Model the fold of this input.
Amino acid sequence: MGSMSVNAPAFHPDHSIAADHTGVRMADGLLLSIFLVGAGVPLLAYVSIGFIMPRRVAVATANATIPAPVEWVFDLVAVDRRQAFRSDLKDVEIASDTRWTERANDSPPVSYEAIREVPNEVFEAVFQGKGFTGRWLVRFSAAGDDATSLVIYEELQVSHPLLRPIVRLAYPLQAAVDRFVADVRDAADRWGGARVSQGLKG
Done:
């Protein structure tokens, strides 16, 4: 029986190394593509949310009865720019009777301008902070001789779509309004306590 020879292709080590490098590059490219897609999905979602959100990113309201006369409460909230009763403020810079800047303990400065004031009835101001503007409205009404009804409305607006989600998360508006009401009530309690002490002394 005759022998049969098969001409096998010659083995070249360089070919194997080149193939391995090509596979590594393809794997790296695939991993990079997966990473970019994975990073792009949440980024795209964030951008979409920013454009979908309205300019008015937050609204807060409050209704409260304060145990003090309306004249006293109006002076505390709308006239005395120092706002010394506020637990969230560390400083207030007063520029004029209608303009001032508040520096809170946990946020950048916010500049205010009073735009409407009806003694013992209405106080309204607009404000501007880093990346946002807003409006603050307080209505006062007597609820008996020694009590005041407060109705508070506050809103935040952000013009840049990409800043809207950030501002909404970073500025808990309702919590700020609730804290403001609590501070007013505490100040009224101290005022009432001082009156009682003075009366007892008298």
Q: What stands out?
A: The first helix runs from residue 13 to 52. Residues 54-201 form a domain with the Alpha-D-Glucose-1,6-Bisphosphate; Chain A, domain 4 fold (CATH 3.30.530.20). The chain has two domains: 20-52, 54-201. The radius of gyration is 33 Å.
